[in-house]
TrEMBL record:
<dbReference type="GO" id="GO:0005886">
    <property type="term" value="C:plasma membrane"/>
</dbReference>
<keyword id="KW-1003">Cell membrane</keyword>
<feature type="domain" description="C2">
    <location>
        <begin position="51"/>
        <end position="173"/>
    </location>
</feature>
<dbReference type="GO" id="GO:0042043">
    <property type="term" value="F:neurexin family protein binding"/>
</dbReference>
<keyword id="KW-0268">Exocytosis</keyword>
<dbReference type="InterPro" id="IPR000008">
    <property type="entry name" value="C2_dom"/>
</dbReference>
<dbReference type="InterPro" id="IPR035892">
    <property type="entry name" value="C2_domain_sf"/>
</dbReference>
<dbReference type="Pfam" id="PF00168">
    <property type="entry name" value="C2"/>
</dbReference>
<feature type="compositionally biased region" description="Polar residues">
    <location>
        <begin position="1"/>
        <end position="12"/>
    </location>
</feature>
<dbReference type="GO" id="GO:0006887">
    <property type="term" value="P:exocytosis"/>
</dbReference>
<keyword id="KW-0677">Repeat</keyword>
<feature type="region of interest" description="Disordered">
    <location>
        <begin position="1"/>
        <end position="28"/>
    </location>
</feature>
<keyword id="KW-0472">Membrane</keyword>
<feature type="domain" description="C2">
    <location>
        <begin position="188"/>
        <end position="319"/>
    </location>
</feature>
<protein>
    <recommendedName>
        <fullName>Synaptotagmin-like protein 2</fullName>
    </recommendedName>
</protein>
<dbReference type="GO" id="GO:0070382">
    <property type="term" value="C:exocytic vesicle"/>
</dbReference>
<dbReference type="InterPro" id="IPR043567">
    <property type="entry name" value="SYTL1-5_C2B"/>
</dbReference>
Length: 349
């Protein structure tokens, strides 16, 4: 939990199927372990159909029960997903942003074989009004596919800070295509300031092969403008993994900074066991969390890598770095032994 430096040691053995021998090494990235540990974090298909149609809903806040209510009435003229059968099986899903995990999703029942579904259902959130007013409501419509990926049919995003709460009537709203902010989650999640450095094997001289294997240094400086999820503020800390390893052998975290939307961590982590060729296939994942007694809530993160979608020849969802993250990683690869400074927006992962 030190604020100054943490050092993690492992070997990036790409072809072995048993852990490497040594007191400070482990088999981080054998093909056998990678394929078993990689899971998709995406649950839908965003590009199969074009968004169209409208949705009718109303918003209300029950002061007595401290409950936010979304009355979903109906949809009209939705896109047809299965053109051969001329059918869609739509349902409506809601999130409170920016922290989808904290408040959870709510969804209506599925209406089969219709592009004009009628729901008349109320989706409810237990939440304080002052906390609600710093959220956005994301309401989206999906086609339900029990045997495959659900298909996105359109969405609307409502800024609850500017919502007219005297308006309790049902109103129609046009469904829009998936926005970049919703897909990447880069809006209002905060910005991380950090530096990274790659030290190639044997590049420091003095002693034979110093260091014996390459090292990646990560200096987490601070984060600014974290979302305030409750009146008392946010108690944040940063987790770090080197993917594809999701075990405790690569796991590191900073101390917790309490009640501060702009926490300063000043925490350095050193990972050794990196050969230069491993930089193409590994990914450094840094995530920011809000700490609470019972559970921690995800706020946002970044993934530093080449964003190729592949790791040691295996297709993986987490190799999804943005252009900014890829450029940052490439600059580190091209400038051995030099600190590269960056300011990267946090996003959903």
């Amino acid at each position: 939990e030190s604020d100054t430096a943490s050092e993690i040691s492992f070997q990036l053995n790409r072809h072995k199927k048993t852990p490497s021998i040594g007191s400070h090494s482990s088999d981080m990235a054998s093909v056998s372990s990678v394929s078993g540990s990689v899971l998709s974090v995406y649950s839908g298909d965003f590009g199969s159909v074009d968004a169209q149609g409208t949705v009718e809903f109303a918003l209300d806040y029950d002061e007595k029960n401290r409950e936010f209510q979304v009355h979903v009435s109906q949809c009209k003229d939705l896109a047809v997903v299965d053109e051969k059968k001329g059918r869609s099986d739509p349902y409506v899903k809601t999130y409170l942003l920016p922290d989808k995990a904290r408040m959870g999703k709510r969804k209506t029942s599925v209406k089969k074989r219709t592009v004009n579904p009628i729901y008349n259902e109320v989706l409810r959130y237990k939440i304080e009004k002052m906390v609600l007013l710093i959220q956005k409501l994301n309401l989206s419509v999906w086609h339900n596919d029990p045997l495959g990926r659900n298909s996105f049919l359109g969405e609307i995003e409502v800024d609850l800070a500017s919502w007219d709460w005297s308006n309790r009537k049902l109103n129609w709203y046009p469904l829009k295509p998936r926005s970049l902010s919703a897909v990447n989650g880069v809006d209002h999640r905060g910005v991380m300031s950090l530096s990274i450095k790659y030290v190639p094997p044997g590049s420091l001289g003095k002693w034979p092969k110093n260091p014996p294997s390459g090292e990646v240094h990560i200096w987490v400086k601070d984060v600014k403008d974290l979302p305030q999820l409750r009146p008392s503020g946010v108690d944040s800390f940063v987790k770090c993994y080197v993917l594809p390893d999701t075990s405790k052998k690569s796991y590191q975290k900073t101390r917790i900074i309490k009640r501060d939307p702009n926490p300063v961590f000043n925490h350095t982590i050193v990972y050794d066991g990196f050969h230069t060729e491993d930089l193409k296939d590994a990914c450094v994942e840094l995530t920011v969390w809000d700490h609470e007694k019972l559970t921690n809530h995800f706020l946002g993160g970044i993934r530093l890598g080449l964003g190729t979608g592949l790791s040691y020849g295996i297709s993986v969802d987490w190799m999804d770095s943005t252009q900014e993250e890829v450029a940052f990683w490439q600059e580190m690869m091209l400038a051995a032994n030099e600190w590269i400074e960056g300011l990267l927006p946090l996003r959903s992962l």
